């Protein structure tokens, strides 16, 4: 499943589902958690279940309520026997928590990988390296910059110019490395200013540069910008193919000269990963 762009849609707004699916997003995240009021949870569950059962062309993930919320059992009952593209897990706290959710999914007859939002509590930060040993299917690993500052009483996670403050830059980096250590997609968090497409472009391209492979979105207008940022351009593809071809022609070489620069094993691995993204295998 290719995950450049994952678009959030409130689960109690089914009239938005078709528009979201037509946005070009690789996946929709139909939300049963924060964007749905307590009074509308039952409406959202029914709408989300109906959408998954309809088996549209765009992958559908579902953000359920947290393990300890008292709401998860009803979420899973509504999804019983269905196979969404993934279950987005809020308030994840490492390998033990995803194992527990996986057990509850299996008991509900739900066959889906888990995408943990892995940084929403203070305890979660100390578990970011544990996902590599979780032993369950993960669709990726992502993070958030809203719940954590609220949890610790911080005024904000951002500087006045929009950059993350030092604690949240650290959390972002640990999520990135935790995802790659687990061998799963590293998904950047949302860019809240959905009308600021120039800012979004810079933010998404920075994420792609740093090693994230996709990003979550909160509005359909963000999708095209995100997809472009996480899609290698023709120059990058040509350069990667040249490196792969050079090593294929000289398999015993440790280092080679390609287009005027020296390349070695790390460059080959980087090129292969880029081409895997182009082919949709990563």
Order of helices and strands: EHEHEHEHEHEHHEHEHHEEH
Query: Strand portion, in percent?
Result: 5-15%
How many H/I helices?
A: 11
- Count all strands and give the number: 10
Q: Given the helix and strand composition, which structural class is it?
A: alpha/beta
Walk across the major sheet and give the strand order.
5-4-3-2-1-8-7-6
Poorly predicted tracts of residues: none
Radius of gyration: 20 Å
Average pLDDT, rounded to a whole number, is 93
**Shape label:** globular
Percent of residues in helices: 40-55%
End-to-end span in angstroms? 8 Å
- Biggest sheet, in brief? 8 strands, parallel
Concise synopsis of the structure shown:
The chain has 282 residues and is α/β, with parallel strands linked by helices. It is built from eleven helices and ten strands.
Task: Describe the protein in words.
- With 282 residues, the chain is α/β, with parallel strands linked by helices.
- The protein is built from eleven helices and ten strands.
- It has helices at residues 17-21, 41-54, 72-78, 95-107, 122-125, 147-152, 166-182, 197-210, 223-229, 234-249, 265-279; strands at residues 5-10, 27-31, 59-63, 86-89, 114-116, 141-142, 186-188, 214-217, 255-258, 261-264.
- Helix 10 packs across helix 11 (265-279).
- The mean pLDDT is 93.
């Amino acid at each position: 499943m290719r995950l450049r762009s994952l678009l959030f849609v409130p689960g109690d707004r089914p009239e938005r589902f078709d528009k979201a699916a037509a946005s070009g997003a690789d996946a929709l995240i139909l939300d049963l958690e924060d964007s749905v009021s307590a009074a509308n949870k039952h409406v959202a569950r029914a709408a989300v279940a109906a959408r998954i059962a309809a088996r549209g062309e765009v992958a559908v993930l579902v953000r359920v309520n947290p393990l300890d919320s008292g709401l998860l059992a009803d979420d899973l009952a509504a999804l019983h026997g269905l196979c969404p593209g993934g279950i987005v897990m809020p308030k994840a706290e490492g390998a033990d928590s995803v194992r527990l959710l996986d057990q509850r999914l299996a008991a509900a007859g739900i066959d889906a990988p888990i995408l943990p939002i892995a940084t929403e509590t203070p305890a979660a930060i100390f578990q970011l390296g544990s996902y590599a040993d979780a032993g369950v299917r993960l669709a990726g690993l992502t993070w958030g910059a809203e719940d954590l500052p609220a949890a610790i009483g911080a005024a904000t996670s951002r500087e006045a110019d929009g950059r993350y403050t030092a604690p949240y830059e650290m959390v972002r980096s640990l999520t990135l490395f935790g995802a790659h250590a687990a061998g799963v997609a590293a998904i950047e968090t949302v860019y809240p200013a959905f009308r600021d497409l120039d800012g979004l472009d810079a933010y998404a391209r920075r994420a792609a540069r740093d090693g994230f492979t996709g990003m979550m979105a909160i509005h359909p207008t963000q999708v095209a910008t995100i997809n472009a940022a996480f899609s290698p351009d023709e120059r990058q593809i040509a350069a990667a193919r040249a490196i792969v071809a050079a090593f294929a022609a000289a398999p015993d070489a440790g280092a080679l000269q390609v287009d005027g620069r020296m390349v070695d094993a790390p460059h080959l691995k980087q090129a292969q990963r880029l081409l895997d993204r182009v082919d949709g295998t990563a």
